[in-house]
Amino acid sequence: MIGERDDFDIQCDLMQRLIDEQPTLDQAMNNALQAVKPGISERAYKAISATNYSAVLDRSRKWMQLVLRSDPPPQSLCAFYFGLFDTRGRFDHKNEWQQLYISGADQFDPDDEGEWACDPLWMPKYRYPRIRLMKLIGKLCPYKENQAGFTLSSSFAAALAMDHASMITETIGFGSVDEYPIASGHDAGDIHILGYMTPNGLRRPG
User: Fold this and answer.
1) What is the pLDDT of residues 25-71, one digit of tens each?
2) pLDDT at 131 over 60
3) Residues with Cβ < 8 Å from 159, sequence gap 6 or more?
4) Could you tell me if 79 and 117 are in contact, meaning their C-beta atoms sit under 8 angstroms apart?
5) Sheet of 191-198, strands arranged across
6) What whole-number distance in Å separates Cα of residue 155 and Cα of residue 150?
């Protein structure tokens, strides 16, 4: 539990707010930090709050450019997924964090609970970005204590996906489709449809 609220409820509320408001990365992370503050240490709160999100975003955009330039998504794709999975470093078996990756599917069903993302057609060579913030979250907010670290990582992945949406559509274009769904989530948990990428920007679900 994080404070008096259920972890799952906090995660769902934050994700819905993120989808509705489409905040910047720093706004999304500030919202998440405030939500999990009762369940993390003061040291963790101060360290994560001190993150330079402009620098993080700049490095992530460069990673996205590399992915799209080196291994462009094929025209047959119809949906994109920013996924998370649990991992540990080769020389650091003590700390666990969430690794982010991007993939694309040639099928999409909004009602199949994310099964469409489980068999991707596009798995680019450089799909795994190196994001020190994710490791920091895993170290300072251990998953064995509560879900605060997962909540922060999920908010980060979703906000990053929404920011990078326009970069994806600039590369793949809109040939035979009017829009592309974009989603984020954990490979062993829920997948959230963040919106639909259109020529006019990111359309909210519904």
Assistant:
1) 999 999 999 999 999 999 999 999 999 999 999 999 999 999 999 99
2) yes
3) 18, 23, 24, 25, 28, 29
4) yes
5) 96-105, 79-88, 180-186, 191-198, 201-203
6) 9
Rounded to the nearest angstrom, the gap between the alpha carbon of residue 10 and the centroid of all alpha carbons in its chain is: 16
For the entire predicted model, the pTM comes to 0.93
Question: Which residue's structure tokens are 């920091």?
Answer: 136
DSSP state of 74: P
DSSP, collapsed to helix, strand or coil, labels residue 201 as: strand
Element (H, E) at 118: none
For residue 128, how many C-alpha atoms fall within 13 Å in the half-sphere facing its CB? 7
What amino acid occupies position 143?
Y
Closest CA to 131 of 195, 73, 56, 35: 56
The structure tokens listed for 44 are 């963790």
183: its two tokens:
């989603």
Q: What is the dihedral of CA 7, 11, 12, 18, to 10 degrees?
A: 160
